[in-house]
Design brief:
With 339 residues, this protein is α/β, with parallel strands linked by helices. The protein is 44% helix and 16% strand. The chain has a single domain, classed as NAD(P)-binding Rossmann-like Domain (Rossmann fold). Bound molecules: nicotinamide-adenine-dinucleotide.
Length: 339
């Protein structure tokens, strides 16, 4: 099998590539990545010279490149995206280009060359749950509430429409919040861990009552491979971690695991359009494909902290880069002095 993975220099894509190289000794992977601020060659440093891995620099919006690459592979797994909600609130254009146009280009090429396509999406396309609402499932209505999730929802619809209209051989997965090694230090857990390692506080937007359902990126990667191989064409599969936890309780757990005081928590204004709760019902993938999360939240978080302790050479240069500083400064101004 020859696989095209998009966005493999990002967080989850890199976990997926490592998982496939490890678990499928016959498979070859081409990783198409535009190396945006979130994509980093240091994220794939350990596999750069792997004999069954090849990096292709470029954008999923580049029609000719996408056509050439897809013609020569058997299947495509699409992770590439603009992924940070806060950034989408300030500038939606890159989200529209990569998440919508880019997905459209991949779909067109897969149709043209009759290739299998798996689209990686998020539970954020379903909007936000109230405290007692039933969890999201495959039949939940689409109701995105921020520009990031709106563009991911549009991409999901393009895939669904192409399955319906053209018989695209596609599957979709909608997954909840991921954590683990290589999480870019602009998301809650990676900022919190790296700040704490630098002796700075954990910043919580609002009162911290927002609930997230954390899943380890390795569990997500396992699920994507399973869907690619055994998922029913045209179907959507939800993946969750079974770890519903408020942001405040997540911060407290993190401080406990790091042996630090809860005085390290700082509260700042909530961001506009903050979703209150995400939670996923993953019965379908569990019963049809036998998947369930294997990493407990505490074990995964402990391992994540350890990884950031041991891999400062990965995250410190990112935090010192010009692009990161510019983004960081904007957050400091908005939050009144903390990030
Ligand atoms: N992080 C989560 O918690 C989460 C949860 C559910 C779903 N997802 C989805 O999983 C996928 C991967 O998320 P992530 O957190 O690893 O993202 P990330 O931001 O860490 O990485 C995204 C990668 O895509 C690349 N990329 C961006 N634009 C590109 C373009 N035009 N062409 C080629 N490459 C491009 C970047 O360089 C980067 O390597 C996304 O589709 C996201 O919506 C993420």
């Amino acid at each position: 099998m020859k696989l095209l993975v998009t966005g493999g220099c990002g967080f989850i894509g890199s976990h997926f590539i490592r998982h496939v190289l490890d678990q499928r000794p016959e498979w070859n992977i081409v990783n198409l990545d535009a190396l945006t601020y979130a994509g980093n060659l240091s994220t794939t440093l350990d596999i750069q010279t792997h004999p069954r891995y090849r990096f292709a620099y470029g954008s999923v919006t580049d029609r000719d490149l996408v056509n050439t690459l897809i013609e020569s592979v058997d299947a495509v797994v699409h992770f590439a995206a603009e992924t940070h909600v806060d950034r989408s609130l300030h500038d939606v254009e890159p989200f529209i280009l990569t998440n919508i146009l880019g997905t459209g280009r991949l779909i067109d090429a897969c149709r043209r060359y009759n290739k299998r396509f798996h689209h990686v999406s998020t539970d954020e396309v379903f909007g936000s749950l109230g405290p007692t609402d039933p969890k999201f499932y495959e039949g939940s209505p689409y109701a995105p509430l921020n520009p990031y999730s709106a563009t991911k929802a549009a991409a999901d619809h393009l895939v669904r429409a192409s399955v319906h209209t053209h018989g695209l051989q596609a599957t979709i997965s909608n997954c909840t919040n991921n954590y683990g090694a290589y999480l870019y230090p602009e998301k809650f857990l990676s900022i919190a861990i790296t700040n704490l390692l630098e002796g700075r506080p954990v910043v919580i937007h609002g009162d911290g009552s927002q609930v997230r359902d954390w899943i380890h990126a390795q569990d997500h990667a396992r699920g994507v491979l399973l869907i690619l191989e055994k998922g029913k064409l045209g179907e959507t599969y939800m993946m969750g971690g079974g770890n519903e936890c408020s942001i405040l309780d997540t911060a407290k757990t993190l401080l406990r695991l790091m042996g630090l005081s809860q005085d390290m928590i700082r509260f700042v204004n909530d961001r506009p359009g903050q979703d209150r709760r995400y939670a996923i019902e993953y019965t379908k993938i569990q019963t049809e494909l036998g998947w369930q999360p294997q990493v407990s939240f505490e074990d995964g978080l402990r391992e994540m902290v350890q990884w950031y302790r041991e891999n400062k050479q990965w995250w410190a240069p990112i935090k010192q880069s010009a692009g990161y500083s510019e983004w960081y400064q904007k957050q400091v101004e908005r939050n009144g002095g903390h990030v």
